[in-house]
Amino acid sequence: MKTSVKQELTLNRKKSVWVRMASQWQLYVFLLPAMTFLAIFSYGPMYGIILAFKEYMPSLGIMGSPWVGFDHFERFFHLPKFWTYIWNTVKVSALITIIDFPFPVILALMLHHVNCKWYKKLVQNFTYLPYMLSLVVVINIARVFCSPTGGVFNIIGGWFGVDPINFFGEDKYVFWIYWFTGLWQGLGYSAVIYLAALSGVDQEQLEAAKIDGANQLRIIWSIEIPAIADTVIILLILAFGRIFSVGADKMLLIQNSANLGASEVLSTYVYKVGLLDAQFGFSTAVNLFNTLVNIICLLTVNWISGKVSETSLF
Amino acid sequence: MKMKSRFDRNFDIINYTLLGILLFIVMYPLYFVIIASISDPNMVNAGKTLLWPRGITFEGYAKILEYKEIMVGYKNSIIYTFVGTIINLVVLIPASFALSRKELVGRKLFSALCLIAMYFSGGVVPLYLLIKNLGMFDTIWALVLPGAFSIYNMIICRSFFVGNVSEDLYESVKIDGGGYMRFFFSIVLPLSKAIIAVMCLYHALGHWNGYLSVLYYMRDPDKYNLQLILKNLTESISTKTLASEGMSTDYLADMQKLNEMVKFSTILIAALPMIILYPFVQKYFVTGVMIGSVKG
User: Fold this and answer.
1) What ipTM describes this predicted complex?
2) N or C: which end of chain B has fewer CB within 10 A?
3) Considering only CB atoms, which chain B residues are within 8 Å of A241?
Protein backbone atom coordinates (compact mmCIF):
# COMPACT_ATOMS: atom_id res chain seq x y z
CA MET A 1 0.00 0.00 0.00
CA LYS A 2 2.66 2.43 1.08
CA THR A 3 4.95 1.60 -1.83
CA SER A 4 2.24 2.00 -4.38
CA VAL A 5 1.49 5.48 -3.15
CA LYS A 6 5.17 6.28 -3.38
CA GLN A 7 5.34 4.84 -6.87
CA GLU A 8 2.42 6.85 -7.92
CA LEU A 9 4.02 9.96 -6.54
CA THR A 10 7.27 9.38 -8.42
CA LEU A 11 5.33 8.58 -11.53
CA ASN A 12 3.37 11.74 -11.07
CA ARG A 13 6.48 13.81 -10.61
CA LYS A 14 8.16 12.22 -13.60
CA LYS A 15 5.20 12.85 -15.74
CA SER A 16 4.91 16.35 -14.42
CA VAL A 17 8.45 17.19 -15.54
CA TRP A 18 7.44 16.52 -19.13
CA VAL A 19 4.14 18.22 -18.62
CA ARG A 20 5.87 21.20 -17.10
CA MET A 21 8.42 21.31 -19.90
CA ALA A 22 5.64 21.17 -22.45
CA SER A 23 3.83 23.99 -20.70
CA GLN A 24 7.04 26.03 -20.85
CA TRP A 25 7.69 25.58 -24.54
CA GLN A 26 7.56 29.34 -25.01
CA LEU A 27 10.47 29.78 -22.61
CA TYR A 28 12.49 27.31 -24.65
CA VAL A 29 11.75 29.29 -27.76
CA PHE A 30 13.19 32.32 -25.97
CA LEU A 31 16.28 30.34 -25.08
CA LEU A 32 16.78 28.74 -28.45
CA PRO A 33 18.79 31.45 -30.27
CA ALA A 34 21.13 31.99 -27.32
CA MET A 35 21.75 28.30 -26.82
CA THR A 36 22.31 27.80 -30.54
CA PHE A 37 24.99 30.47 -30.61
CA LEU A 38 26.49 29.06 -27.44
CA ALA A 39 26.65 25.60 -28.98
CA ILE A 40 28.17 26.75 -32.26
CA PHE A 41 30.59 29.46 -31.19
CA SER A 42 31.49 28.51 -27.62
CA TYR A 43 31.21 24.75 -27.48
CA GLY A 44 31.95 24.15 -31.15
CA PRO A 45 35.54 25.43 -31.02
CA MET A 46 36.24 23.46 -27.85
CA TYR A 47 36.78 20.40 -29.93
CA GLY A 48 39.55 22.29 -31.68
CA ILE A 49 41.49 22.14 -28.43
CA ILE A 50 42.82 18.75 -29.49
CA LEU A 51 44.95 20.78 -31.91
CA ALA A 52 47.15 21.53 -28.91
CA PHE A 53 48.23 17.88 -29.02
CA LYS A 54 48.51 17.64 -32.79
CA GLU A 55 50.66 18.94 -35.62
CA TYR A 56 48.10 20.65 -37.79
CA MET A 57 48.26 19.87 -41.49
CA PRO A 58 45.73 21.88 -43.50
CA SER A 59 45.34 19.04 -46.01
CA LEU A 60 44.50 16.52 -43.30
CA GLY A 61 42.17 18.68 -41.23
CA ILE A 62 41.93 18.71 -37.45
CA MET A 63 40.94 15.06 -37.17
CA GLY A 64 43.46 13.65 -39.60
CA SER A 65 46.51 15.56 -38.38
CA PRO A 66 49.08 13.47 -36.50
CA TRP A 67 49.25 13.44 -32.71
CA VAL A 68 52.33 14.92 -31.10
CA GLY A 69 51.43 14.52 -27.42
CA PHE A 70 52.76 17.29 -25.21
CA ASP A 71 55.44 18.45 -27.65
CA HIS A 72 53.91 21.90 -28.10
CA PHE A 73 53.71 22.47 -24.37
CA GLU A 74 57.30 21.33 -23.86
CA ARG A 75 58.46 23.64 -26.60
CA PHE A 76 56.57 26.52 -25.02
CA PHE A 77 57.87 25.90 -21.50
CA HIS A 78 61.42 25.72 -22.80
CA LEU A 79 61.26 28.93 -24.81
CA PRO A 80 64.03 31.26 -23.66
CA LYS A 81 61.37 33.98 -23.42
CA PHE A 82 58.82 31.86 -21.52
CA TRP A 83 59.24 33.65 -18.21
CA THR A 84 59.41 37.01 -19.95
CA TYR A 85 55.95 36.44 -21.43
CA ILE A 86 54.57 35.30 -18.09
CA TRP A 87 56.09 38.24 -16.26
CA ASN A 88 54.91 40.72 -18.89
CA THR A 89 51.40 39.34 -18.53
CA VAL A 90 51.38 39.40 -14.74
CA LYS A 91 52.90 42.86 -14.64
CA VAL A 92 50.12 44.53 -16.58
CA SER A 93 47.40 42.64 -14.73
CA ALA A 94 48.29 41.76 -11.14
CA LEU A 95 50.54 44.71 -10.49
CA ILE A 96 48.12 47.15 -12.05
CA THR A 97 45.20 45.63 -10.16
CA ILE A 98 47.02 46.26 -6.89
CA ILE A 99 48.25 49.75 -7.71
CA ASP A 100 44.94 50.83 -9.22
CA PHE A 101 42.40 49.88 -6.63
CA PRO A 102 42.79 52.82 -4.18
CA PHE A 103 42.31 55.49 -6.85
CA PRO A 104 38.60 55.05 -7.63
CA VAL A 105 37.88 54.62 -3.92
CA ILE A 106 39.59 57.91 -3.13
CA LEU A 107 37.84 59.65 -6.02
CA ALA A 108 34.46 58.35 -4.84
CA LEU A 109 35.12 59.57 -1.29
CA MET A 110 36.21 62.97 -2.54
CA LEU A 111 33.16 63.32 -4.78
CA HIS A 112 30.91 62.17 -1.99
CA HIS A 113 32.12 65.08 0.14
CA VAL A 114 31.37 67.73 -2.44
CA ASN A 115 28.24 69.60 -1.41
CA CYS A 116 28.09 71.82 -4.44
CA LYS A 117 25.86 69.80 -6.78
CA TRP A 118 26.96 71.19 -10.14
CA TYR A 119 30.62 70.86 -9.30
CA LYS A 120 30.13 67.24 -8.30
CA LYS A 121 28.22 66.51 -11.52
CA LEU A 122 30.84 68.31 -13.58
CA VAL A 123 33.76 66.35 -12.18
CA GLN A 124 31.91 63.06 -12.18
CA ASN A 125 30.61 63.29 -15.73
CA PHE A 126 33.86 64.42 -17.24
CA THR A 127 36.03 61.92 -15.42
CA TYR A 128 34.13 59.02 -16.90
CA LEU A 129 33.90 60.35 -20.41
CA PRO A 130 37.17 58.63 -21.45
CA TYR A 131 35.49 55.29 -20.74
CA MET A 132 33.49 55.79 -23.93
CA LEU A 133 36.57 56.16 -26.11
CA SER A 134 38.03 53.25 -28.00
CA LEU A 135 41.41 51.77 -27.16
CA VAL A 136 42.69 52.88 -30.54
CA VAL A 137 41.81 56.47 -29.71
CA VAL A 138 43.22 56.27 -26.19
CA ILE A 139 46.52 54.77 -27.26
CA ASN A 140 46.78 57.26 -30.11
CA ILE A 141 46.33 60.09 -27.65
CA ALA A 142 49.06 58.55 -25.50
CA ARG A 143 51.21 58.31 -28.61
CA VAL A 144 50.95 61.99 -29.46
CA PHE A 145 51.48 62.88 -25.82
CA CYS A 146 54.63 60.78 -25.66
CA SER A 147 55.96 61.73 -29.07
CA PRO A 148 59.63 62.74 -29.09
CA THR A 149 58.71 65.64 -31.39
CA GLY A 150 56.08 67.93 -29.96
CA GLY A 151 54.79 65.49 -27.36
CA VAL A 152 53.66 67.24 -24.21
CA PHE A 153 55.81 65.16 -21.87
CA ASN A 154 58.96 65.82 -23.83
CA ILE A 155 58.20 69.51 -24.16
CA ILE A 156 57.84 69.81 -20.41
CA GLY A 157 60.94 67.66 -19.95
CA GLY A 158 62.75 69.99 -22.32
CA TRP A 159 62.12 72.93 -19.99
CA PHE A 160 64.19 71.08 -17.41
CA GLY A 161 66.89 70.10 -19.86
CA VAL A 162 65.80 66.48 -20.25
CA ASP A 163 66.59 64.96 -23.64
CA PRO A 164 63.55 63.82 -25.64
CA ILE A 165 62.50 60.28 -24.79
CA ASN A 166 60.82 57.95 -27.26
CA PHE A 167 58.40 56.40 -24.77
CA PHE A 168 56.90 53.91 -27.22
CA GLY A 169 60.32 52.79 -28.34
CA GLU A 170 61.64 51.36 -25.08
CA ASP A 171 60.73 48.36 -22.98
CA LYS A 172 60.73 50.15 -19.68
CA TYR A 173 57.91 52.53 -20.57
CA VAL A 174 55.42 49.92 -21.75
CA PHE A 175 54.14 49.27 -18.26
CA TRP A 176 53.70 52.98 -17.56
CA ILE A 177 51.83 53.58 -20.81
CA TYR A 178 49.56 50.61 -20.15
CA TRP A 179 48.92 51.64 -16.57
CA PHE A 180 48.42 55.35 -17.15
CA THR A 181 46.06 54.97 -20.09
CA GLY A 182 44.03 52.40 -18.14
CA LEU A 183 43.75 54.66 -15.14
CA TRP A 184 42.88 57.66 -17.27
CA GLN A 185 40.19 55.73 -19.06
CA GLY A 186 38.70 53.77 -16.17
CA LEU A 187 39.07 55.91 -13.07
CA GLY A 188 35.78 57.78 -13.22
CA TYR A 189 33.85 54.71 -14.31
CA SER A 190 35.23 52.57 -11.50
CA ALA A 191 34.35 55.25 -8.97
CA VAL A 192 30.65 55.01 -9.83
CA ILE A 193 30.20 51.70 -8.05
CA TYR A 194 31.79 53.05 -4.86
CA LEU A 195 29.66 56.17 -5.04
CA ALA A 196 26.64 53.88 -5.11
CA ALA A 197 27.94 52.04 -2.07
CA LEU A 198 28.57 55.34 -0.29
CA SER A 199 25.00 56.50 -0.81
CA GLY A 200 23.96 53.53 1.33
CA VAL A 201 25.88 54.74 4.41
CA ASP A 202 23.80 54.69 7.57
CA GLN A 203 22.41 58.23 7.92
CA GLU A 204 21.72 58.03 11.68
CA GLN A 205 25.28 57.03 12.37
CA LEU A 206 26.42 59.93 10.23
CA GLU A 207 24.23 62.43 12.08
CA ALA A 208 25.38 61.10 15.45
CA ALA A 209 29.00 61.47 14.42
CA LYS A 210 28.40 65.03 13.24
CA ILE A 211 26.72 65.98 16.53
CA ASP A 212 29.71 64.54 18.35
CA GLY A 213 31.81 66.99 16.36
CA ALA A 214 33.53 64.55 14.06
CA ASN A 215 35.24 66.27 11.14
CA GLN A 216 35.00 65.04 7.54
CA LEU A 217 38.26 63.12 7.64
CA ARG A 218 37.11 61.33 10.76
CA ILE A 219 33.78 60.48 9.12
CA ILE A 220 35.59 59.10 6.08
CA TRP A 221 37.93 57.03 8.19
CA SER A 222 35.52 55.65 10.79
CA ILE A 223 32.21 55.45 8.96
CA GLU A 224 32.51 55.60 5.21
CA ILE A 225 35.56 53.44 4.59
CA PRO A 226 34.20 50.62 6.78
CA ALA A 227 30.87 50.95 4.97
CA ILE A 228 32.37 50.37 1.53
CA ALA A 229 35.12 47.98 2.61
CA ASP A 230 33.08 44.95 1.60
CA THR A 231 32.53 46.25 -1.92
CA VAL A 232 36.21 47.08 -2.26
CA ILE A 233 37.31 43.64 -1.09
CA ILE A 234 34.89 41.79 -3.33
CA LEU A 235 35.89 43.77 -6.39
CA LEU A 236 39.55 43.32 -5.59
CA ILE A 237 39.15 39.58 -5.16
CA LEU A 238 37.23 39.34 -8.42
CA ALA A 239 39.95 41.30 -10.19
CA PHE A 240 42.48 38.75 -9.01
CA GLY A 241 40.54 36.01 -10.71
CA ARG A 242 41.39 37.67 -14.02
CA ILE A 243 45.09 38.08 -13.44
CA PHE A 244 46.25 36.06 -16.39
CA SER A 245 43.61 37.18 -18.82
CA VAL A 246 45.16 40.19 -20.49
CA GLY A 247 43.39 40.96 -23.73
CA ALA A 248 45.47 41.27 -26.87
CA ASP A 249 43.73 44.39 -28.12
CA LYS A 250 45.39 47.03 -25.98
CA MET A 251 48.86 45.52 -26.04
CA LEU A 252 48.81 45.10 -29.81
CA LEU A 253 48.29 48.86 -30.06
CA ILE A 254 51.20 49.69 -27.80
CA GLN A 255 53.43 47.02 -29.24
CA ASN A 256 56.10 47.65 -31.86
CA SER A 257 59.36 45.95 -32.76
CA ALA A 258 61.32 48.21 -30.42
CA ASN A 259 59.43 47.40 -27.23
CA LEU A 260 58.68 43.71 -27.74
CA GLY A 261 60.70 42.75 -24.68
CA ALA A 262 58.01 44.18 -22.41
CA SER A 263 54.93 44.21 -24.61
CA GLU A 264 54.74 40.55 -25.60
CA VAL A 265 52.06 39.04 -23.37
CA LEU A 266 50.48 35.60 -23.67
CA SER A 267 47.50 36.76 -25.72
CA THR A 268 49.58 38.72 -28.23
CA TYR A 269 51.91 35.76 -28.54
CA VAL A 270 48.98 33.42 -29.21
CA TYR A 271 47.80 35.77 -31.95
CA LYS A 272 51.23 36.09 -33.48
CA VAL A 273 52.21 32.42 -33.64
CA GLY A 274 48.67 31.32 -34.42
CA LEU A 275 47.18 33.71 -36.93
CA LEU A 276 50.31 35.36 -38.35
CA ASP A 277 52.72 32.40 -38.39
CA ALA A 278 49.95 29.77 -38.81
CA GLN A 279 51.45 27.45 -36.17
CA PHE A 280 47.95 26.37 -35.22
CA GLY A 281 48.89 23.53 -32.90
CA PHE A 282 51.48 25.46 -30.96
CA SER A 283 49.28 28.53 -30.63
CA THR A 284 46.37 26.45 -29.37
CA ALA A 285 48.66 24.88 -26.79
CA VAL A 286 49.79 28.27 -25.49
CA ASN A 287 46.19 29.43 -25.49
CA LEU A 288 45.05 26.34 -23.59
CA PHE A 289 47.81 26.84 -21.02
CA ASN A 290 46.63 30.43 -20.55
CA THR A 291 42.98 29.39 -20.20
CA LEU A 292 43.81 26.72 -17.64
CA VAL A 293 45.89 29.13 -15.56
CA ASN A 294 42.97 31.58 -15.72
CA ILE A 295 40.58 28.98 -14.44
CA ILE A 296 42.88 27.92 -11.63
CA CYS A 297 43.21 31.57 -10.57
CA LEU A 298 39.49 32.05 -10.75
CA LEU A 299 38.61 28.96 -8.75
CA THR A 300 41.22 29.77 -6.11
CA VAL A 301 39.99 33.31 -5.80
CA ASN A 302 36.41 32.15 -5.71
CA TRP A 303 37.21 29.72 -2.94
CA ILE A 304 39.01 32.43 -0.95
CA SER A 305 36.21 34.93 -1.42
CA GLY A 306 33.71 32.34 -0.30
CA LYS A 307 35.68 32.04 2.93
CA VAL A 308 36.25 35.75 3.44
CA SER A 309 32.98 37.33 2.53
CA GLU A 310 30.53 34.53 1.86
CA THR A 311 30.21 36.03 -1.59
CA SER A 312 31.27 33.81 -4.39
CA LEU A 313 30.80 33.88 -8.11
CA PHE A 314 29.00 30.62 -8.47
CA MET B 1 22.49 74.81 11.00
CA LYS B 2 25.86 74.59 12.64
CA MET B 3 28.77 76.46 11.10
CA LYS B 4 31.44 74.28 9.58
CA SER B 5 34.56 73.91 11.64
CA ARG B 6 37.79 75.36 10.37
CA PHE B 7 39.10 71.89 9.72
CA ASP B 8 36.14 71.04 7.55
CA ARG B 9 36.45 74.31 5.65
CA ASN B 10 40.08 73.56 4.90
CA PHE B 11 39.12 70.03 3.96
CA ASP B 12 36.61 71.38 1.47
CA ILE B 13 39.11 73.77 -0.06
CA ILE B 14 41.67 71.02 -0.53
CA ASN B 15 39.05 68.57 -1.78
CA TYR B 16 37.63 70.99 -4.36
CA THR B 17 41.09 71.99 -5.51
CA LEU B 18 42.30 68.41 -5.93
CA LEU B 19 39.16 67.49 -7.86
CA GLY B 20 39.75 70.52 -10.07
CA ILE B 21 43.28 69.33 -10.77
CA LEU B 22 41.99 65.85 -11.52
CA LEU B 23 39.40 67.26 -13.89
CA PHE B 24 42.20 69.13 -15.65
CA ILE B 25 44.36 65.99 -15.93
CA VAL B 26 41.50 63.98 -17.37
CA MET B 27 40.32 66.64 -19.81
CA TYR B 28 43.64 68.14 -20.87
CA PRO B 29 44.69 65.32 -23.24
CA LEU B 30 41.45 65.72 -25.18
CA TYR B 31 41.79 69.49 -25.18
CA PHE B 32 45.38 69.27 -26.35
CA VAL B 33 44.43 66.97 -29.22
CA ILE B 34 41.71 69.40 -30.29
CA ILE B 35 43.91 72.47 -30.32
CA ALA B 36 46.83 70.61 -31.87
CA SER B 37 44.58 69.33 -34.64
CA ILE B 38 43.84 72.86 -35.81
CA SER B 39 47.31 74.29 -35.26
CA ASP B 40 50.32 74.64 -37.50
CA PRO B 41 52.37 71.43 -36.94
CA ASN B 42 55.58 73.46 -36.62
CA MET B 43 54.04 75.28 -33.68
CA VAL B 44 52.90 71.99 -32.17
CA ASN B 45 56.37 70.50 -32.51
CA ALA B 46 57.94 73.56 -30.97
CA GLY B 47 55.68 73.10 -27.97
CA LYS B 48 53.85 76.38 -28.46
CA THR B 49 50.35 74.95 -28.46
CA LEU B 50 50.15 73.65 -24.92
CA LEU B 51 47.36 76.02 -23.93
CA TRP B 52 45.80 77.44 -27.08
CA PRO B 53 45.96 76.89 -30.84
CA ARG B 54 48.52 78.76 -32.94
CA GLY B 55 48.55 79.29 -36.68
CA ILE B 56 45.07 77.90 -37.13
CA THR B 57 44.63 75.60 -40.11
CA PHE B 58 42.09 72.95 -41.04
CA GLU B 59 44.39 71.20 -43.47
CA GLY B 60 44.56 68.15 -41.21
CA TYR B 61 40.83 67.63 -41.53
CA ALA B 62 40.80 68.36 -45.24
CA LYS B 63 43.52 65.75 -45.69
CA ILE B 64 41.61 63.19 -43.67
CA LEU B 65 38.50 63.62 -45.80
CA GLU B 66 40.60 62.78 -48.84
CA TYR B 67 41.36 59.35 -47.40
CA LYS B 68 38.65 57.26 -49.00
CA GLU B 69 39.41 54.52 -46.47
CA ILE B 70 38.22 56.63 -43.57
CA MET B 71 34.80 57.09 -45.11
CA VAL B 72 34.57 53.38 -45.92
CA GLY B 73 35.56 52.61 -42.34
CA TYR B 74 32.90 54.94 -41.01
CA LYS B 75 30.25 53.27 -43.11
CA ASN B 76 31.40 49.79 -42.08
CA SER B 77 31.51 50.72 -38.41
CA ILE B 78 27.95 52.01 -38.56
CA ILE B 79 26.70 48.85 -40.28
CA TYR B 80 28.57 46.48 -37.95
CA THR B 81 27.40 48.36 -34.88
CA PHE B 82 23.78 48.54 -35.99
CA VAL B 83 23.41 44.93 -37.13
CA GLY B 84 25.53 43.58 -34.30
CA THR B 85 23.62 45.37 -31.58
CA ILE B 86 20.24 44.30 -32.92
CA ILE B 87 21.32 40.66 -33.02
CA ASN B 88 22.75 40.96 -29.52
CA LEU B 89 19.51 42.31 -28.10
CA VAL B 90 17.24 39.85 -29.90
CA VAL B 91 19.31 36.98 -28.53
CA LEU B 92 20.04 38.38 -25.10
CA ILE B 93 16.80 39.80 -23.74
CA PRO B 94 14.45 36.81 -24.31
CA ALA B 95 17.11 34.34 -23.13
CA SER B 96 17.76 36.33 -19.96
CA PHE B 97 14.04 36.46 -19.31
CA ALA B 98 13.69 32.70 -19.75
CA LEU B 99 16.63 32.09 -17.42
CA SER B 100 15.13 34.42 -14.84
CA ARG B 101 12.05 32.17 -14.48
CA LYS B 102 12.61 29.95 -11.47
CA GLU B 103 10.14 27.32 -12.71
CA LEU B 104 12.09 26.74 -15.93
CA VAL B 105 12.90 23.04 -16.15
CA GLY B 106 16.63 22.69 -16.76
CA ARG B 107 17.45 26.18 -15.53
CA LYS B 108 20.45 24.95 -13.56
CA LEU B 109 21.78 23.10 -16.58
CA PHE B 110 21.46 26.09 -18.88
CA SER B 111 23.09 28.37 -16.33
CA ALA B 112 25.95 25.93 -15.89
CA LEU B 113 26.44 25.73 -19.65
CA CYS B 114 26.65 29.52 -19.72
CA LEU B 115 29.11 29.75 -16.85
CA ILE B 116 31.42 27.15 -18.34
CA ALA B 117 31.41 28.93 -21.69
CA MET B 118 32.16 32.20 -19.94
CA TYR B 119 35.42 30.98 -18.46
CA PHE B 120 36.48 28.18 -20.74
CA SER B 121 36.86 28.55 -24.46
CA GLY B 122 38.50 26.81 -27.37
CA GLY B 123 40.78 29.76 -27.90
CA VAL B 124 41.78 31.96 -30.77
CA VAL B 125 42.82 29.35 -33.34
CA PRO B 126 39.91 26.89 -33.00
CA LEU B 127 37.44 29.75 -33.35
CA TYR B 128 39.40 31.10 -36.29
CA LEU B 129 39.27 27.72 -38.02
CA LEU B 130 35.58 27.36 -37.29
CA ILE B 131 34.81 30.74 -38.79
CA LYS B 132 36.99 29.89 -41.77
CA ASN B 133 35.20 26.57 -42.28
CA LEU B 134 31.83 28.25 -42.04
CA GLY B 135 32.95 30.51 -44.87
CA MET B 136 32.46 33.64 -42.81
CA PHE B 137 35.77 35.38 -43.56
CA ASP B 138 35.24 38.87 -44.95
CA THR B 139 31.57 38.83 -44.02
CA ILE B 140 29.83 40.76 -41.29
CA TRP B 141 28.78 37.44 -39.71
CA ALA B 142 32.30 36.74 -38.49
CA LEU B 143 32.03 39.92 -36.43
CA VAL B 144 28.50 39.76 -35.08
CA LEU B 145 27.65 36.07 -34.66
CA PRO B 146 30.42 34.61 -32.48
CA GLY B 147 29.71 37.15 -29.75
CA ALA B 148 25.97 37.34 -30.38
CA PHE B 149 25.15 35.97 -26.94
CA SER B 150 27.00 37.79 -24.18
CA ILE B 151 26.90 35.70 -21.03
CA TYR B 152 28.17 38.44 -18.78
CA ASN B 153 25.36 40.72 -19.87
CA MET B 154 22.87 37.88 -19.55
CA ILE B 155 23.73 37.65 -15.86
CA ILE B 156 23.06 41.38 -15.44
CA CYS B 157 19.75 41.20 -17.34
CA ARG B 158 18.65 38.11 -15.50
CA SER B 159 19.17 39.76 -12.13
CA PHE B 160 17.24 42.76 -13.40
CA PHE B 161 14.30 40.55 -14.34
CA VAL B 162 14.44 38.63 -11.08
CA GLY B 163 14.41 41.86 -9.10
CA ASN B 164 11.96 43.91 -11.16
CA VAL B 165 9.32 41.59 -12.57
CA SER B 166 6.86 40.56 -9.91
CA GLU B 167 5.19 37.18 -9.80
CA ASP B 168 1.75 38.72 -9.40
CA LEU B 169 2.00 40.17 -12.87
CA TYR B 170 2.58 36.75 -14.35
CA GLU B 171 -0.25 35.26 -12.32
CA SER B 172 -2.63 37.86 -13.69
CA VAL B 173 -1.58 37.13 -17.26
CA LYS B 174 -2.03 33.43 -16.62
CA ILE B 175 -5.52 34.00 -15.26
CA ASP B 176 -6.36 35.85 -18.44
CA GLY B 177 -5.27 32.76 -20.34
CA GLY B 178 -1.99 34.24 -21.61
CA GLY B 179 1.33 32.45 -21.81
CA TYR B 180 4.95 33.50 -21.44
CA MET B 181 4.96 35.09 -24.87
CA ARG B 182 2.17 37.49 -24.06
CA PHE B 183 3.62 38.12 -20.63
CA PHE B 184 7.03 38.92 -22.12
CA PHE B 185 5.86 41.17 -24.93
CA SER B 186 3.03 43.03 -23.25
CA ILE B 187 4.33 43.34 -19.69
CA VAL B 188 8.01 42.52 -19.25
CA LEU B 189 9.38 44.44 -22.22
CA PRO B 190 7.65 47.72 -21.36
CA LEU B 191 8.96 47.38 -17.80
CA SER B 192 12.50 46.82 -19.00
CA LYS B 193 13.22 49.95 -20.99
CA ALA B 194 16.10 50.90 -18.70
CA ILE B 195 17.94 47.61 -18.98
CA ILE B 196 17.35 47.42 -22.72
CA ALA B 197 18.83 50.89 -23.12
CA VAL B 198 21.83 49.91 -21.02
CA MET B 199 22.40 46.73 -23.00
CA CYS B 200 21.99 48.59 -26.25
CA LEU B 201 24.66 51.02 -25.12
CA TYR B 202 27.10 48.35 -23.91
CA HIS B 203 26.87 46.29 -27.06
CA ALA B 204 26.93 49.25 -29.43
CA LEU B 205 29.99 50.61 -27.68
CA GLY B 206 31.69 47.23 -27.96
CA HIS B 207 30.99 46.97 -31.68
CA TRP B 208 31.97 50.55 -32.41
CA ASN B 209 35.16 50.55 -30.37
CA GLY B 210 36.44 47.06 -31.07
CA TYR B 211 38.93 46.18 -33.74
CA LEU B 212 40.33 42.78 -32.78
CA SER B 213 37.80 40.56 -34.55
CA VAL B 214 38.06 42.74 -37.66
CA LEU B 215 41.81 42.24 -37.56
CA TYR B 216 41.38 38.49 -37.17
CA TYR B 217 38.68 37.74 -39.71
CA MET B 218 38.68 40.47 -42.35
CA ARG B 219 41.19 40.26 -45.19
CA ASP B 220 39.63 42.75 -47.54
CA PRO B 221 40.58 46.34 -46.58
CA ASP B 222 37.17 47.46 -47.85
CA LYS B 223 35.64 45.57 -44.91
CA TYR B 224 37.77 47.21 -42.21
CA ASN B 225 36.03 49.23 -39.56
CA LEU B 226 37.05 52.71 -38.53
CA GLN B 227 39.14 51.62 -35.54
CA LEU B 228 41.29 49.22 -37.50
CA ILE B 229 41.83 51.75 -40.26
CA LEU B 230 43.01 54.28 -37.70
CA LYS B 231 45.33 51.73 -36.15
CA ASN B 232 46.81 50.94 -39.54
CA LEU B 233 47.00 54.60 -40.47
CA THR B 234 49.00 55.47 -37.36
CA GLU B 235 51.37 52.62 -38.01
CA SER B 236 51.82 53.29 -41.70
CA ILE B 237 52.40 56.97 -41.06
CA SER B 238 55.25 56.26 -38.70
CA THR B 239 56.82 53.62 -40.92
CA LYS B 240 56.37 55.70 -44.04
CA THR B 241 58.24 58.57 -42.47
CA LEU B 242 61.05 56.24 -41.54
CA ALA B 243 61.16 54.57 -44.93
CA SER B 244 61.17 57.65 -47.07
CA GLU B 245 64.89 58.31 -47.04
CA GLY B 246 66.37 59.40 -50.32
CA MET B 247 63.56 61.80 -51.08
CA SER B 248 64.13 65.51 -51.33
CA THR B 249 64.27 67.19 -47.97
CA ASP B 250 61.55 69.61 -48.97
CA TYR B 251 59.19 66.81 -49.84
CA LEU B 252 60.14 64.97 -46.67
CA ALA B 253 59.47 68.02 -44.59
CA ASP B 254 56.10 68.44 -46.30
CA MET B 255 55.17 64.82 -45.68
CA GLN B 256 56.31 65.10 -42.13
CA LYS B 257 54.20 68.18 -41.64
CA LEU B 258 51.17 66.52 -43.15
CA ASN B 259 51.56 63.43 -41.06
CA GLU B 260 51.93 65.51 -37.96
CA MET B 261 48.64 67.18 -38.74
CA VAL B 262 46.75 64.06 -39.64
CA LYS B 263 47.69 62.28 -36.45
CA PHE B 264 45.61 64.69 -34.38
CA SER B 265 42.62 64.98 -36.66
CA THR B 266 42.30 61.20 -37.00
CA ILE B 267 42.01 60.84 -33.24
CA LEU B 268 39.21 63.38 -33.14
CA ILE B 269 37.41 61.91 -36.11
CA ALA B 270 37.30 58.55 -34.35
CA ALA B 271 36.36 59.93 -30.96
CA LEU B 272 33.77 62.41 -32.16
CA PRO B 273 30.71 60.16 -32.40
CA MET B 274 31.23 58.94 -28.84
CA ILE B 275 31.80 62.43 -27.47
CA ILE B 276 28.66 63.69 -29.19
CA LEU B 277 26.64 60.74 -27.91
CA TYR B 278 28.05 60.92 -24.41
CA PRO B 279 25.71 63.51 -22.84
CA PHE B 280 22.69 61.51 -23.99
CA VAL B 281 23.80 58.12 -22.81
CA GLN B 282 25.88 58.83 -19.73
CA LYS B 283 23.00 58.33 -17.32
CA TYR B 284 22.57 54.79 -18.64
CA PHE B 285 26.14 54.01 -17.68
CA VAL B 286 25.31 54.74 -14.08
CA THR B 287 22.12 52.68 -14.32
CA GLY B 288 24.11 49.82 -15.78
CA VAL B 289 26.69 49.89 -13.03
CA MET B 290 23.95 49.95 -10.40
CA ILE B 291 22.09 46.99 -11.87
CA GLY B 292 25.35 45.12 -12.35
CA SER B 293 26.45 45.76 -8.78
CA VAL B 294 23.37 44.26 -7.15
CA LYS B 295 23.90 40.92 -8.79
CA GLY B 296 24.66 38.33 -6.18
Assistant:
1) 0.89
2) N
3) none
